[in-house]
Amino acid sequence: MEIRYTHAKVKFLRLILFLVVFLSFFDLIAQASVIKDRTEFLKYAGTVTTESFEGMTPVTGATVLTQIPASDINDNFQMDRGGSGLMQVWNTTTDPSLDAADGDQAIFFSAGALSTEENPSSFRFSNFQGSSAQINTFGFYLVDWNNSVTQGALSFKTDTGVTGILEEVVQSLPNNVVRYFGIITTEPFSEITIYTTIPGDWTLIDAVSYGIEGLHPPKASDDMAIKVPSTFICEGNKKGFPVDLDGVNNGTSNDPNETLFVIETLNGKIGGDKVVQDKVLFYSFLNNNCSNPTCTNCPSGKFLFRFVDMTAFGFDINNSDTWVYKTIPKISLRARNNQDPRPNTTKPYSVVKAYKETNNATPGNLIDINPSIEVTGNGGYTQCAFEDLDDGIGEVYIQTDFAENIMNDIILYSNPVNTPLGASVEVSSNNGTLKFDQINGTGTTTVTKQKNGPGFGGNFSICDPNEFYNITTTANFSGNIEVCLEYNESCESSDLQLLHFENGQWIDVTTSIDTDNNIICGVVNSLSPFAIVTSSKPFNFWYAFLLGLILLVIILLILKNRNKD
């Protein structure tokens, strides 16, 4: 009997473990980004509806509302309270020490003195647009006052199971502190509940915004300096360090990494170092530890950061000839120097620049906003942040006239999600446009040109030797995808075709060709390399032999006639 009980207990524990793993996996699928700045939130939220609660009848006294119907809020949404929370429409003009974030009215709520982690107060938002419309963006202002609470948390949960922490209170906040919380999820929802375990907190909520077009902002990686070994990368050398920026597997042997962070030395040396147990990147115009003999009149130290697509066909981390360079939307870092300049330098200079493309150090190739930042030194760090969401950053150039330079907190960012939820979703990227039948989970779609691609087993000639197309998406889609790519006019041909590499072979997927705009389209249900080609007739030996024989007979007849004359 005891043995049976033990077996049953083991089975039960296994079942619990399975459920925990399963639910953890589900949480990884359905994710949320929390943005604590309204301007930044609106950049990725798309079109939103905003309710500022103006025109509603304020509640006076200690009357507690259990529900504010959607019809009372211009049919935008409904609010319900739960636990020991209090909720009222509040007119802030009655107290000159208060100020709503938008207008004169807001929603007052308090967690109540009985709120605990086991029994939180809650405020549910539902019935969006007066119905059960689904959304994937939700944002609001919070204004605290009369706040003496020193512990607790503000969190959220959607009816589809997506959860997250908005704020953890570890000390009392000053009165009238205005904060913003924007939530963007990968999975749409029709209800969202805000939970608070901050007992007795008095709070105003205002300018509630929601929508269905939300796209996730770029996601930050770890400090790249910790990846660089202490051995120097010397002049004429480069070294790459794999990074997982998108947070998903891409179906390659390099998973989960899809980006190679490359450091290249043009002059000088660069390598990992420690400053008070902090791993940093040390660089210098000096080439000692690298060259023999050491330079005596050294030029400026010059270095490059680049980014390689590890999902590209034929990628080999040990062969830089296979590297296909890509762009990232944002990079940030801190840099400083010791003010010990190169000899005979009258105006020592240290700078970090960001370019759109590699191998193009021209002013026109610099990113559009804040492309160049001078590192002033003076013992302190200079903060350098570069962002280009339109063209991306393909190369970061570092130059210094100082012997000792330190770079820290090198943070790379993923491409922001550009493929929203919905039907007939169209995405444009790098001379290509994709139209998905259905997007069930947001993601990032990219079209990358590359030199290398699978060989052609058939009778095809590629339109442009440098233009294989590697098309990928992290979005969850169903149905077909229409792929449309631009081609050069020199490729114009009556037998132009769009090929898709499927199951180890090239397949013609062409559906239309727009010769006026030089666009060729095809329909597929999966993504991988694409190529624009023309048909080439195979060499026929007997056809050539017969043609040669005919020409020979003609020549002999001509010569024979001349001899008769």
Describe this structure in words.
This protein has helices at 2-29, 38-45, 541-564, and strands spanning 32-35, 49-51, 67-68, 78-82, 86-91, 105-110, 121-126, 135-145, 152-158, 163-169, 177-189, 192-196, 202-211, 233-234, 238-243, 259-267, 269-275, 278-284, 301-309, 330-337, 350-355, 372-374, 382-387, 395-400, 405-412, 422-428, 432-441, 445-450, 460-462, 468-473, 476-486, 496-502, 505-508, 510-514, 519-524, 529-535. The chain has 565 residues and is mainly β. The protein is flat and about 125 Å long. Mean pLDDT is 83; it is low at 1-29.
Annotation field: number of helices: 3
Helix content: 10-25%
Strand proportion, as a percent range, falls in 35-45%
Radius of gyration: 31 Å
Pick out its properties.
disordered N terminus, 41% strand, 6-stranded antiparallel β-sheet, transmembrane helix, 3 helices, Secreted protein (IPTL-CTERM system target), transmembrane, 36 strands, membrane
